[in-house]
Amino acid sequence: MKSQHYSEQTEGTWLALEIGNSRLHWALFHGKSLNCTWDTEYLPESVIQQLGDWGAEEQRGRGAEEQRSRGSSIYPFPFPLSPFPFPLLLASVVPQQTAIWQSYPNVRVITLEDIPLNNIYPTLGIDRALALWGAGMSWGFPMLVIDAGTALTFTAADGDKNLVGGAILPGMGLQLASLGQKTGQLPQLEVEEIQLPPRFALNTPQAMQSGVIYTLLAGIKDFIDEWWRLFPDGKVAMKGGDRNLLLSYLQELYPAIASRLIVEPNLIFWGMQKISMSR
Ligand SMILES: Nc1ncnc2c1ncn2[C@@H]1O[C@H](COP(=O)(O)OP(=O)(O)OP(=O)(O)O)[C@@H](O)[C@H]1O
Ligand SMILES: CC(C)(CO)[C@@H](O)C(=O)NCCC(=O)O
Ligand SMILES: [K+]
């Protein structure tokens, strides 16, 4: 579990949880200021239920250290829970996970209705809508968000906050995984922080890396070029677990594009912050 600095202050404290397709993304806010972020695996239903019990224990004066050692090895917070429970603002693209979080004592689930973008279609992913809202409200519209997550998505809005639309494709990890799973001879490769492979590769792993990486980058360049043709002053922001790797490749191959990119992991949390303030 990776976390940034946590400061001891609980006034107006709330938790933000984004349930992604691979893992949970957490943030702790004090009012409108983002205090720290961290990622965890999905939590078993029993642990989510236990959070309520831990809260009750905490109110009876038991320390969180004790909860942690006694309760479960899957303690999801990089800090003690006190006072408990912090209100939880939740956005999820995994309905099964949303369901099991309903047992959290003080939860509010964000839906598309909460997001003041125009022209939204009913099945748009809440992660895409929130990231776009967070990016646009922080850096301005028109805005194109590239989310380099499990799926790689493009999601754009014009200067009047109308959804322009976007695209969805398998992310880097998923592309490599599907090659390994659906073929007889290709190995299972994972996303690695490697230098750009040779374009014309002379071994199997590099051939797979070359194919996935260069076509992904060419695709990203093509979408951005088209975005700038439509909206010459449009902004582009990139988030997601593979953002830094993709950024380093873009810097090497397309430096003019890379220099105009806003790279920001917390776009969804900024979107949640704006929405929590406006209600
Ligand atoms: N510790 C990690 N666990 C899982 N994926 C990681 C990790 N570190 C980097 N990644 C990369 O992040 C990508 C997944 O991105 P991310 O975590 O943003 O996806 P996600 O959980 O599906 O979230 P979302 O649904 O919001 O995109 C994977 O392709 C992987 O290469
Ligand atoms: C595309 C993903 C999987 C990206 O996380 C998610 O946003 C989602 O499930 N979206 C629903 C379909 C859509 O956005 O059109
Ligand atoms: K599915």
TrEMBL record:
Enumerate the residues binding substrate.
Y121, G125, I126, D127, R128, T204
EC numbers listed for it are 2.7.1.33
Binding annotation for ATP: E18, I19, G20, N21, S22, R23, L24, H25, T150
| Compartments it resides in | Cytoplasm
| SUPFAM superfamilies in alphabetical order | Actin-like ATPase domain
Report the catalytic activity.
(R)-pantothenate + ATP = (R)-4'-phosphopantothenate + ADP + H(+)
Query: Which Gene3D superfamilies does the record match to this protein?
Result: 3.30.420.40
Say where the protein is mainly found. cytoplasm
- Pfam families on file: Pan_kinase (PF03309)
From the Swiss-Prot or TrEMBL record, what is one GO molecular function term? pantothenate kinase activity
Query: What are the required cofactors?
Result: NH4(+); K(+)
The active-site annotation reads D127 (proton acceptor)
Q: Which domain of life is it from?
A: Bacteria
Keyword list (alphabetical) reads: ATP-binding, Coenzyme A biosynthesis, Cytoplasm, Kinase, Metal-binding, Nucleotide-binding, Potassium, Transferase
| Sites where the protein binds K(+) | D147
What binding details are noted for the cofactor?
A monovalent cation. Ammonium or potassium.
Question: Part of which pathway?
Answer: Cofactor biosynthesis; coenzyme A biosynthesis; CoA from (R)-pantothenate: step 1/5
Similarity field: Belongs to the type III pantothenate kinase family.
**Subunit:** Homodimer.
The protein's role, per its UniProt record: Catalyzes the phosphorylation of pantothenate (Pan), the first step in CoA biosynthesis.
What's this protein's name? Answer: Type III pantothenate kinase
Organism this protein belongs to: Anabaena azotica FACHB-119
Could you read off the lineage of the organism from its UniProt record?
Answer: Bacteria, Bacillati, Cyanobacteriota, Cyanophyceae, Nostocales
